């Protein structure tokens, strides 16, 4: 197997897929794309999803979960809208999602259960079913490889740029492709906005394998920018595998590990794009914790630092205020001895054994004055490590 | 007993106290007050303290804790500086706090253990002992009832206004007084900045009673704006009881409950002033949760809502976006059925049984457009309740 490499393309670059997007009038801005359809021509398209852990779940999340369960992971279409989350909308909202799936299924010649649904936007406001039903025939008519280009734009809400990634690898004489689009962004904590991601692949993957691989990839990527349980009502990651490449991924085989590596890389790329697009963000920051007693402790420290507004504003100003970093670690709940802690930006020591490392302020500022940087914390308590991506916080 | 009433005054309005403040040059702004001394003339002055739960504790916190333990709660002076937190400063930092206490004790004719120390300001930078030692004689010379007026200003860092409160009540022919000053403020989460409060009273209270009463008062006030464990390196609340009123507070007696009521009221007033002074704040918001299964659940929901940047910006814009409130409750970790939840601003229904209450948008905005308001959430799951104070978040 060769490594996965990034290539030009869209959600329909993996074989077997077509997609389209339209302006259905759900967003307030006239002519803004807000409804997209992703479709697989392959009869045996496997599907898997990961959803919000919020106790309040939107209607489309409930319905997609149900459809994946009922079909045991076979689905051929995703219909997604932006501009309205269809969350906190009660029985009427669920009906809207159901009717959407039913109408799309009819036009595509599928069972309604083979259609997954996702929404993002304002909460608590009824989603007008008519706006969607009116445009479904147009969407189905426009399904094509080229039109898949529009999907990332159609799922944006407060995002300042579209997020997509396509990866390809060679498997003998054949090639396999993975593509993904995402939306996220939002305020201050990237974790507070709805995160959607849709992934297509032409590998042939059984639903159970697809589900397990997706879970691992999401835990190492989107959940690295999202606090467990600290999610919106609509967070959704869906993957469809058409099998059209003719390359089969088998559980326990080598193919499983290269497919897992590709899916992990794709999800990490999309997750980093989301972190980068946090409102008021000018830098992409990785927080790496080493030497923790347990992985849970490493995670706690990384998240506390990544979410501290005081740390984030210091990063925005390239201010080497490592005391704020140590303070955030201190309230994270992790067990450690402050007198042992090292703190670095990239390879530059700010704090050694809990004390100022005696650095030159200008040198430190130069190190911090980069668009991508890593804050490294070594607790010197054990061997566990963890990493979180975040952004800085400017006053814009 | 009469009720406690707010009166004019300062930390030296309770009998037995004097105080003073000077500009010692610790703050960068020339002439800014940054060092204060609070002193009790009464030989048997009881003292109690509550400190940060952060794993990283500043030198003055370590020293004050130690002094209160060694003396079993007898202390007659507090020396506090702003401009430098003396945190993450290692053994040298502890020596600085010790020398400060020792020098103050010598000038005041006390044992060093009778002097408590507090600091607030930048972390990780050595605090210059000389700046303090140079000014201690001036401070001691200037100790007076009038000069106590300067203390709240001397402990400010990013605070935009000084915070103090004085309460008086009549106990038979005598009157008892409680006074307090505080500093807090900071960024976005009020909880992220150092919180200091110093309280004086002329009631006679045994150290153990004083400690227990203080703990209850802090839990119902400062800890209502501060997440447990989510505290700065320097958070400190100290109380000194001179006994100079001649009125004794006895454990288990009626006097214990009126004293507790007064201390609770004083701490709540100061805590609300801190919440009001959050950076970018224009409103003081109480988040009240009812109908929770357990007090812990009520607390989780209240804190999740109070700390949600999405909720806080909606509040700033008087935007009746109750979906954001329900979403925050959903990721709080509390157990509840979203379909049962009511959400109100003051007495105005925004959401009834998980759905839009069908309110008039202008009416809702008028209700939200107040300087003080209450967000009320009824989970309809049980009988537990909880309350948190917070502020909105404007873009200033």
Could you name the key traits of this structure?
homodimer; 396 residues; alpha/beta; L-amino peptidase D-ALA esterase/amidase; Ubiquitin-like (UB roll); six-stranded mixed beta sheet; 20 strands; 31% helix; 28% strand; globular
Task: Describe this protein's structure.
The structure is a homodimer of 396-residue chains. With 396 residues, chain A is α/β, with parallel strands linked by helices. The first copy, chain A, has 2 domains: 5-278, L-amino peptidase D-ALA esterase/amidase, CATH 3.60.70.12; 281-391, ArgJ beta chain, C-terminal domain (Ubiquitin-like (UB roll), Roll). Chain A is 31% helix and 28% strand. Chain A is built from 10 helices and 20 strands. Chain A has helices at 59-71, 90-108, 129-142, 151-154, 207-219, 254-276, 295-307, 309-316, 322-330, 361-368; strands at 5-6, 17-22, 35-40, 46-51, 77-84, 115-122, 163-171, 174-183, 186-187, 196-201, 204-205, 236-241, 248-249, 278-279, 284-292, 342-345, 348-352, 355-356, 372-378, 384-391. Chain A has a 6-stranded mixed β-sheet with strand order 1-7-8-10-12-4, with helices on both faces. The radius of gyration of chain A is 22 Å and the shape is globular. The N and C termini of chain A lie far apart (46 Å). At the A-B interface, strand 9, helix 8, helix 9 and strand 18 of A face strand 9, helix 8, helix 9 and strand 18 of B.
């Amino acid at each position: 197997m060769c490594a996965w490499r990034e290539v030009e393309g869209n959600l329909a670059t993996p074989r077997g897929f077509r997609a389209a997007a339209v302006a259905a009038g759900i967003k307030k801005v006239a002519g803004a794309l807000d409804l997209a359809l992703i479709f697989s021509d392959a009869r045996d398209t496997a599907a898997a999803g990961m959803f919000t852990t919020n106790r309040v779940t939107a209607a489309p999340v409930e319905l997609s979960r149900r459809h994946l369960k009922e079909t045991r992971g076979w689905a051929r279409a995703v219909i997604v809208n932006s501009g309205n989350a269809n969350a906190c909308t009660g029985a009427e909202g669920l009906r809207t999602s159901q009717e959407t799936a039913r109408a799309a299924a009819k036009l595509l010649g599928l069972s309604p259960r083979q259609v997954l649904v996702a929404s993002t936007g304002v909460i608590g406001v009824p989603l007008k079913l008519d706006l969607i039903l009116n445009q479904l025939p147009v969407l189905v008519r426009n399904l094509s490889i080229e039109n898949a280009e529009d999907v990332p734009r159609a799922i944006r809400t407060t995002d300042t740029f579209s997020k997509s990634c396509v990866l390809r690898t060679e498997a003998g004489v054949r090639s396999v492709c993975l593509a993904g689009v995402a939306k996220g962004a939002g305020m201050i904590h990237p974790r507070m906005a709805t995160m959607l991601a849709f992934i297509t692949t032409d590998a042939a993957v059984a639903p159970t394998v697809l589900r397990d691989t997706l879970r691992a990839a999401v835990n190492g990527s989107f959940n690295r920018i999202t606090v467990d349980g600290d999610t919106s009502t609509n967070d959704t990651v869906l993957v469809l595998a058409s099998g059209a490449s003719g390359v089969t991924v088998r559980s326990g085989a080598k193919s499983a590990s290269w497919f897992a590596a590709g899916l992990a890389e794709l999800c990490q790329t999309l997750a980093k794009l989301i972190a980068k697009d946090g409102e008021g963000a000018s830098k992409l920051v990785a927080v790496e914790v080493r030497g923790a007693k347990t992985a849970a402790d490493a995670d706690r420290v990384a998240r506390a630092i990544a979410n501290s507004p005081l740390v984030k504003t210091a990063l925005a100003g390239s201010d080497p205020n490592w005391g704020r970093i140590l303070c955030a670690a201190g309230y994270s709940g992790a067990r450690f001895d402050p007198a042992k802690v090292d703190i670095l930006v990239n390879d530059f020591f700010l704090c050694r054994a809990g004390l100022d490392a005696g650095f030159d302020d200008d040198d430190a500022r130069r190190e911090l004055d980069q668009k991508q940087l890593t804050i490294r914390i070594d607790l010197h308590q054990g061997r566990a490590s963890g990493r979180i991506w975040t952004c800085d916080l400017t006053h814009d």
